[in-house]
Amino acid sequence: MPPPRHQLLDELVELFLTEGFLELGVGDLAARLRCSRTTLYQVATTKEQIVLTAIRAFFRRATERIEAQVEAEPDPGARLSVYLTAVAEELAPASERFYADLQAYAPAAGIYQANTALAARRVGELVTAGVAAGALRPVDAAFVGAAVAQVMTAIQGGAIAAASGLADAAAYRALADLVVHGVGGSTP
């Protein structure tokens, strides 16, 4: 009996995070996941759609876990740190091959870019809430969100890795540290 679709999708996500996806054909995927091609086509009808379905699932599930952590944090000032740290944790399992494949395959890069934009907007919302609660320094949340978006885009595009040698997850942790320490505390 073939595995349920959600289980197969979980296994695809794990495989892609570890090994990337561009060099794996449907036959390779079926062999690695010990299922038939027909079973894989229950996820989506083409290899390209299988890849995009798995990538969307990865980001959707990561977002759900991140937001659950943020919602569990009662301190509006700490929510920003929780959010950015959770983003770094969610991206940590992704290999360099996965990120390289994201960059090389335009539809996948588009999914990553859209999620980066959503994350930057969420940072702005968290800064606004933290400032309103008096838990963060009074800073321009739109500026912080825009600056974070630029850094996230540079991380996503590989510029930060090229300039610093940091993998994406480590770069997100460094960004979290920079932003949290920049907006926390007292006014200089």
TrEMBL record:
The keyword tRNA processing does not apply. It comes from the Bacteria. InterPro entries: Homeodomain-like_sf, HTH-type_TetR-like_transc_reg, Tet_transcr_reg_TetR-rel_C_sf. Keywords: DNA-binding, Transcription, Transcription regulation. This is TetR/AcrR family transcriptional regulator. It comes from Nocardioides aquiterrae.
